[in-house]
Amino acid sequence: MRRLLAPLANAVFLRLWAAYLTATLGGMMQAVAAAWLMMEMTGSPAMVAFVQSCITLPLVAFSLIAGVLADVYDRRRIMLAAQGVMGLVSAVLAGLAFADALTPGRVLLFTFLIGCGGAVHIPAWHASVRDIVGRRELAQAVALNSMGFNVMRSVGPAVGGALLAATGAAAVFAANALTYLAPVAALLAWRPGPRAGPPPAGPLHRALTDGLRQAAGTPALLRIMLRGAVFCASGVAVLALLPVVAARLLAGDAALFGTLLASFGAGAVLGAILNPPLRARMSNEAIVRLAFAAMAAACLLLVSGAAWAAFAGALLAGTCWVTANALFNVTIQLMAPEAIVGRALSVHYTGIFGGMALGAWAWGLVAEAQGTATALVAAAVLMCAGAALGLRLPLPDPASEPS
């Protein structure tokens, strides 16, 4: 545990990490309020689902260009601009809600704009972590980031739902706007040192193509990205179908769904705690194969029909989700040259977010046509195939990585 928390001794990382957790909590609250407001305005499940799509689509569409920006321009200024825009958009959304001037189209538009800010921010933040904490504590810092996000994924909807019931959607949107003040203040207080190397010269499109060419010409990076996309496309079945598991397989209510989400969040914390000792004792490929296999087991636990097994499955799924994704992120950062680390991460994010978006849609179709249990069993089979893929495409262990 002490090793996991070591990056928090770095004052800059601690301030930024805590600030981003605050903003992430606000973002999760905003997503709940937007989805509920859309349901009230339209009564259409498709429109409600489209709210989530408007959050995810920018991450798929703009991650590549955001990676170029992170490699070419000052990352602190990029993050300041992104957080400022998200805060401003959220404030306007809150104002329109208080004025009772929102329409379904406006809710989708403002949700999409907030998603665009997140898409620009993510590569710059993750590329900055190595500069802030150094290579020795990079794995722990990435694990803390992943753990924090997944805990907020569990806590945020519950807090947002409670605030929504007590005060209404407009107040939730306003609270979200205020949370962006935390990262803006932390970024204004941060004075980063010079980068290790000069930024790429030439126009942005050349920087993009050069970065893609270097990433494509590095087989080790391609293997990491492919395995990450497969893991997320199959593992997202758990997150996508968890509400259906609670309502149909367990005949539960919103409280049971919240408990399952809390179990997933607890698993995320456990995954972050286990990450350093696992990396010290096992190869990257062994850890990833274990995560694939354990996620398959989690899918099977969720279809058992027993509440205790479903809680165990959600806990195991959260553990695997953080363990695997933190490992993919760290390995890319350690293997990619400093000059293209932002672009390498952005290609990875495009793959995993695209895999999650397509996977969630596909598993939803399978569940609707063949049943939730069939969809989760199929996801478990795909997870086993992802583990076997390591026989042909094993994950590398960076030789220069500190122990």
UniProtKB/TrEMBL annotation:
GO terms, molecular function: transmembrane transporter activity
UniProt KW Transport keyword: yes
Membrane-traversing stretches: 12-37, 49-73, 80-99, 105-126, 138-156, 162-190, 228-249, 255-274, 286-303, 340-363, 375-395
GO cellular component, as recorded: plasma membrane
Positions of the Major facilitator superfamily (MFS) profile domain: 11-398
PROSITE patterns: MFS
Source superkingdom: Bacteria
CDD domains noted in UniProt: MFS_MefA_like (cd06173)
Any single Pfam family the record assigns to this protein: MFS_3
Main location: membrane
InterPro entries, per database record: MFS_dom, MFS_trans_sf, TM_effector
PANTHER family recorded: INTEGRAL MEMBRANE EFFLUX PROTEIN-RELATED, STAPHYLOFERRIN A TRANSPORTER
Protein name: MFS transporter
Keywords, sorted A to Z: Cell membrane, Membrane, Transmembrane, Transmembrane helix, Transport
Entry's localization field: Cell membrane
Membrane topology summary: Multi-pass membrane protein
Source taxonomy: Bacteria, Pseudomonadati, Pseudomonadota, Alphaproteobacteria, Rhodobacterales
